[in-house]
Amino acid sequence: MAAPPKDPIATMYRRPGFMIRRAHQIAVGLFLEETGDLDITNTQYGILTVLRHHPGIDQISIAKLLGLDRSTTGMVLSKLESAGLIGRHVGVTDKRRHAIKLTAPGLRMQKRLGKCADRTRARELSAFTAREAEMFLDLLDKFTRAFNDSTRVPLDIDGAAKRAKPKANTTKARPR
After folding, report:
1. 56-99: per-residue pLDDT in tens?
2. For residue 119, which of 51, 48, 35 has the smallest C-alpha distance?
3. Which bin fits 73, alpha (ψ -120 to 50), beta or left (φ > 0)?
4. Phi, psi (deg, nearest 5) at residue 57
């Protein structure tokens, strides 16, 4: 491993946390460039994608699948609901649980955004050879798995996916 640079600013630029934050800023910028005037964030796209593959999932399970806190998830869901992209339904057996589903416009938006996300991914990985890209993703995966449980909002992919399976005939439309 190379010794850190002697210049304090150069040392800061080589800190993993600084580089990860900067990489995140770049990734968000690339996503926003690809989505153009759709006015959708990465987080909104993540939620729409979860809902496409887990219709009827509840807010807490969405948060756990994406590593989001509950209040952020609630705010994003409210914005998506206001935009007509999702609908919430009150559970019949548990009135506290809202089953959340994509609306028809939400499904169309998610499909459209999927193409944008694919272009973003290609741009992000274009800095690498195919072998480097695979290694980069593997190292990011290793890093996030190693420290997942130490975060304020860890991913709970297995548990949330099990809870995401709604019971048949357990929801009804929430009155407006």
Report:
1. 999 999 999 999 999 999 999 999 999 999 999 886 667 778 89
2. 35
3. alpha
4. -65, 155
